[in-house]
Amino acid sequence: MSTPFFERWFANHFINRIGHKTAFALAMVLCLLWSAAAAVRGPAEAAAAVASQEWPSEWDGVALRPLALSDVEQRFADRFPGAIGRMTDGTQTLVMRAVAQPTRMLHPAADCYRALGYRIEQARLERDAQERMWRCFVAQRHGAQKIRVCERIVDARGTAFTDTSAWYWAAASGQSHGPWQAVTVAKPI
Prior knowledge:
The protein is 37% helix and 30% strand. The protein is α+β, with helices and mostly antiparallel strands. Mean pLDDT is 86; it is low at 43-50.
């Protein structure tokens, strides 16, 4: 009497246990290689879009002119996974960051201002004249003029985020797709 195919291949024999474990290990290696290839390919495409970043020549109908990054900004930009541009329209300074992948290096502007010795006041969400939602605050440092700062992050589909942490988790979980553009607008008051 011959044994059925199923019983022969899945019987608890040494050769079957080794064969099944080997097949499972090969499947795991293939999955890892597939994931690694997808991870390399995805950010590379987004990075190419960011590397060729062209900053806008106007903001809300007003011409912009580029500004050089400060030494602190340049050191940060050298490690940043994207591109950073700084410009002005004559009354306010805009810092634009193009981001190719989810990163914790894209953090709230309030953190930067606090690190520079500013006190953050009047933090709130606001809509501008174009009905865009922004996270805004006033930054004040002893002996310096107050600065009104507003920021937002927009993904490739036009979805906007005013909370950096919400953006990060949406991007990391695949709910938001890049490249992303973070805009911070600072105006003396």
